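pasting for the record
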Amino acid sequence: MTIDIQNISKRFGQTQALDNISLKFGQKKIYGLLGNNGAGKSTLLNIITGRYLTDDGILTLDGEPLKDNDKALNQIYMLSEKDYYPETMKVKDAIRWASVFYPDFDEKLALKLTEKFGLPVKKKIPSLSTGYKSIFKIVIALSANTPFLLLDEPVLGLDAGHRDMFYKLLIERYSENPCTIVISTHLIAEVEGLVEHCMIIKDGRIIKDAPCEDLLNRGYSISGPAALIDDYIKGKDIISSSNLGGLKTACLNGAMPNPENLPVGLEAGKMNLQEYFIQLMKEGEVKGNE
């Protein structure tokens, strides 16, 4: 089962939100849709779920058009930043109604998760704090049991403890009931250990589309005393660098060197996804899909 997106574009007035995007979300994999605020992440997910119409392009699920196709759209659940519930609806009522719209919805799990997160089920949804509104949406999403789960900035307003709980529960649910998960976020460091495939969007265009491991193998980090690092990186292709006291870490393009060939006092390691992402955002020219 695959969501296939071909040459999608979307404009809002003078703003080109999406510019000729093509990509695929395959079966039973965790994707990271990564980009800064305003890059086009939410617009893309809203188009997939039929909440926005495209200006151009085609979207299909296993070859069937997604537009105006309730059967296909019921295979997708999207956690959105926006609230679509009636002002008078309570948490417990929303959980009950979710099982009507999503036949495989696990109501028992949803109620269990409300207890785990301390979510008050008798409260009206609009009266919840920002953090608890996010928790409510997470509870519904984790209980939906659809083949495709789209999570748009899922940890908005959550404290560190609840964010950690969410990520652990997400992996637990994925292990028990594998599906395709798309995590749309600008919090790169927090999802690095979760995502298998990165789709990086900038100014409405997909600039990278590849397994995370492949992207990160294109560079490495080097750390040690600042003076030694400055000497080592002379003439090399530097991605980024940072100082902490007398120590320095630099990220470089290229293959990781053999530890035996490094000067004493320096250590090399894998580049992390956030460092790679920051560098991409600094580049003035988009080099195209990979």
